[in-house]
Amino acid sequence: MALRHNAQMPPPSFAALLIEGTAALEPLGPDARREAEWLLIAASGTSRASLHARGEMSVAAADAERFRAWLERRRRGEPLAYLTGTRGFWTLELEVTPDVLVPRPETEMLVERALQLGATSCRVVDLGTGSGAIALALAHERPDWLITGVDLSPAALAVARRNGVKLGLPQIRWLHGDWFARLEHERFDLIISNPPYIAADDPALQDPALRHEPRGALTPGGDGLDALRSLARAAPAHLTPGGWLLLEHGAAQGAAVRALLVAQGFAHVRSRSDLAGHERTTEAQWPANP
């Protein structure tokens, strides 16, 4: 059902549109009001404080129409971040387009652990950087680190570069390539990746939100482990002695990823769980004397 305003009716107020939007999004879950607020803020170009302070004021016709069009697209499953064009990650506000995955809170676990493991002037590479979320968060927290972001998608790299410029983080080196292909004989203290890991037959790929995200960034096909296998095999040649590999993976893949890393000769292999108790990341150290 399309949401449209009758031209014969008076212009809607901010408060009325917020009520309308909340009702329209209620079938999507408990965040309906919050999402309606974000869409109305983005559509009208106002702030959250102004939105509520101006509750009874009329909304410009073009802004109301944009808001209702976005509501309809959101009702059909399009991610909120693609509609507003932004997503918060760590302490940053990132540009997000359909060329990149929407950054998830779980991925912040990789940032947190990298900050704990990295030392001064740490050399870091973020493989499959997408919007640049991990690389940018680390550069923001550690300006002295030497950080590289790599992605196979030129469109994704363009988003990452724009985010770097907007955030005033020009020190990141962005490379177009397939995993380590552009890195030749370079070695890093930290290798970090949130690779595609969803199995090809996983019902999660039918989720309305995931259907809008770049499929190549979600699944490598097969059992979902191919990208993780490639990273586990290739990482030792690009790690400094004592360097760390940090990987995000599916909630049921922790044991398989640990086995891959142990088989490659990594030490201190361990997985970490998210707030829901699911194993979400696995880390491993390349021995100082392998």
Task: Please give a structural write-up.
This protein has 290 residues and is of the alpha/beta class. It has two domains: 14-76; 97-285, 3-Layer(aba) Sandwich (Rossmann fold). The chain has helices spanning 14-25, 32-44, 48-53, 61-75, 80-84, 108-117, 133-141, 154-166, 226-234, 254-263; strands at 86-89, 92-95, 123-127, 146-151, 173-176, 188-193, 239-248, 267-273, 279-285. The strands form two sheets. Strands 5-4-3-6-7-9-8 form a seven-stranded mixed sheet, sandwiched between helices. Strands 1-2 form a two-stranded antiparallel ribbon. Helix 1 packs across helix 2 (32-44). The longest helix has 15 residues, at 61-75. It is elongated and about 75 Å long. The model has no long low-confidence stretch (mean pLDDT 93).
